[in-house]
Design a protein that fits this description.
- This protein is an alpha/beta fold.
- The protein folds into two domains: 6-152 and 345-357, NAD(P)-binding Rossmann-like Domain (Rossmann fold, 3-Layer(aba) Sandwich); 153-338, Dihydrodipicolinate Reductase, domain 2, CATH 3.30.360.
- Helices cover 31% and strands 19% of the residues.
- The chain has a six-stranded parallel beta sheet with strand order 3-2-1-4-5-6, sandwiched between helices. It has a six-stranded mixed beta sheet with strand order 8-7-9-12-11-10.
- Helix 1 packs across helix 13 (341-357).
- The structure holds NADP nicotinamide-adenine-dinucleotide phosphate.
- This is Aspartate-semialdehyde dehydrogenase.
- Residues 7-133 form the Semialdehyde dehydrogenase NAD-binding domain.
- It holds the Pfam family Semialdhyde_dhC.
- Keywords: Amino-acid biosynthesis, Methionine biosynthesis, NADP, Oxidoreductase, Threonine biosynthesis.
C-alpha cells in the first residue's frame, strides 16, 4: 500500500528520454515532480528556455518555469526517487552519489546494468528481481537508496515476447534477432540527416552485445541462497543479434526467430494465444503506467508498423505480428516497441511505481 506522495526528480531532463519523463510525471497520481537536472550549460535557467522540446504535446505549464539544476546531491537529496536520463559518460558517479544520499535511482544508462547487485528490470517481466535490493544496500552499508537499471531499448522489445514464450512453453534454445532501430534511440540530435535519410546503417556501437547479454540477466532468476542472479545459467539459450539504424523517428522493430528446447513444438496459433494471454506483476499490483495488454498480437499480414502501432497504449506494451513457422527456427515473428516509452522513460516510471507499491520506496 502506498504511504502517500513521493517527491521525484529527473536527471537529463532536457534530453530525448528526459522530455518523456516530464510528460509522464507532471501529473502522476503518486509521484510529485520537484527537481530537474541537466548539464552546467542548462543549470540555473528555466526549463522552457534551455530545452529543445521535440514533443507534440506542449511543455506542461507546471514545468515550464521550473529551474534546471546541476545533477548534484545538493539539488536532489530532497527526492525519494530520481529518474535518470543521463548519458553513460556522466551517469555513473552522479547516480552512485545519489544512491549514497539515500535516493532510489531508476536509470536508463548502461553503467550499472552488469553490476551483479543492481537489478536489470523490464517492468513487463522481472520486477521480482527487486528481491536483490536488500543485498545491494547491505553491501554498501545503506538502509535507504539503491540503483535499479532498465534495459537497452532493443533488448526490451525482444525480451518481452521471449519471457512470454518461456513461461508458456519452457526453455528456449536459440534466438536470432535482427533489429530496425529508430533514430531517436541515439538521442538528440542523433545521426546527421545525410547519414540516415534514404539509408540503412548496419551498425550501432555495442548494441548487439547489449541485446545478447542483457537478455540472460533479465530472463534469469535470483538465487535465494546468496541474493545473486543466476543469469539464466540453467537455460540452454543462445542469443544472436544484428542491429541496424533505419530512417524511422520512434519505434524499434525486431525480426526474431526462436527455437524451443522441448521436442514438442507449439504451433503458430498456440504461440499467438500464449503471447496474448501473458500478464505481468506491474498489472497485478495496479501500476498506473502498466498497459492493459502486455503483448498486442496483430493478425494483419503487414503489422506491426512503427508509425501505426508505436503509440498504442501510450507505448507501454509491445506489438507482435507475423507469427509463423520457419524452416530453421521453430517460430518467427516481428516485434515493435516504442524505444522512448517502454524502451526508456515508461520502463523507469513503471519500475518505480511497482517498487513503491511493493514497499521498496
Ligand atoms: N533515446 C532512447 O531511445 C533511449 C532508450 C533507452 C535508453 N536510453 C539511454 O538514456 C540516456 C539518455 O539518452 P537520450 O537519448 O535522452 O540522450 P540526450 O537526448 O542526448 O540527452 C542527454 C541529457 O543529458 C544531459 N547531460 C549531458 N551532459 C551532462 C552532464 N555533464 N551533466 C549532467 N547532465 C548532462 C543533457 O543536458 P543538456 O541539455 O544540458 O546538455 C540532456 O538532458 C542514455 O544513457 C541512453 O543510452 C536512451
Amino acid at each position: 500500500m502506498l504511504k502517500g506522495e513521493y517527491k521525484v526528480g529527473v536527471l537529463g531532463a532536457t534530453g530525448t528520454v528526459g522530455q518523456r519523463f516530464i510528460l509522464h510525471l507532471h501529473n502522476h497520481p503518486f509521484f510529485k515532480l520537484v527537481a530537474l537536472g541537466a548539464s552546467s550549460r542548462s543549470a540555473g535557467k528555466a526549463y522552457r528556455d534551455v530545452t529543445k522540446w521535440k514533443q507534440v504535446k506542449q511543455i506542461p505549464e507546471s514545468v515550464q518555469r521550473m529551474q534546471v539544476e546541476e545533477c548534484t546531491v545538493e539539488h536532489f537529496q530532497q527526492c525519494d526517487i530520481v529518474f535518470s536520463g543521463l548519458d553513460h559518460d556522466v551517469a555513473g558517479p552522479i547516480e552512485d552519489a545519489l544512491r549514497n544520499a539515500h535516493v532510489a535511482v531508476f536509470s536508463n544508462a548502461k553503467n550499472y546494468r552488469r553490476d551483479p547487485l543492481v537489478p536489470l528490470v523490464v517492468p513487463l517481466i522481472n520486477t521480482s528481481h527487486y528481491s536483490v535490493l536488500p543485498a545491494q544496500q547491505k553491501s554498501l552499508g545503506l538502509t535507504k537508496g539503491y540503483i535499479v537499471a532498465n534495459a537497452n531499448c532493443s533488448t526490451t522489445a525482444l525480451v518481452v515476447p521471449l519471457a512470454a514464450l518461456e513461461k508458456a512453453f519452457g526453455p528456449l534454445e536459440q534466438v536470432q534477432a535482427t533489429t530496425l532501430q529508430a533514430i531517436s534511440g541515439s538521442g538528440y540530435p542523433g545521426l546527421p540527416s545525410l547519414d540516415i535519410l534514404d539509408n540503412v546503417v548496419p551498425y550501432i556501437g555495442s548494441e548487439e552485445d547489449k541485446m545478447e547479454w542483457e537478455t540472460y540477466k533479465i530472463l534469469g532468476g535470483v538465487s535465494a541462497q546468496n541474493d545473486a542472479f543466476d543469469y539464466h545459467a540453467q537455460s540452454p539459450l543462445t542469443v544472436s543479434a544484428t542491429c541496424n539504424r533505419v530512417p524511422v523517428i520512434d519505434g524499434h522493430t525486431v525480426c526474431a526467430g526462436v527455437k524451443f528446447a522441448s521436442k514438442v513444438k507449439p504451433s503458430p496459433q498456440q504461440v499467438m494465444e500464449a503471447l496474448s494471454a501473458y500478464t505481468c506483476d506491474a498489472q497485478h499490483v495496479g501500476a498506473p503506467s502498466a498497459p492493459q495488454q502486455v503483448i498486442t498480437v496483430h493478425q494483419e499480414q503487414d503489422r506491426p508498423q512503427p508509425r501505426l502501432d508505436r503509440d498504442h497504449q501510450n507505448g507501454a506494451g509491445v506489438n507482435v505480428g507475423r507469427v509463423r513457422g520457419d524452416a530453421l527456427f521453430d517460430i518467427k515473428f516481428v516485434v515493435l516497441a516504442n524505444n522512448v516509452q517502454i524502451g526508456a522513460a515508461t520502463s523507469s516510471v513503471m519500475n518505480a511505481e511497482v517498487a513503491a507499491l511493493q514497499g521498496y520506496v
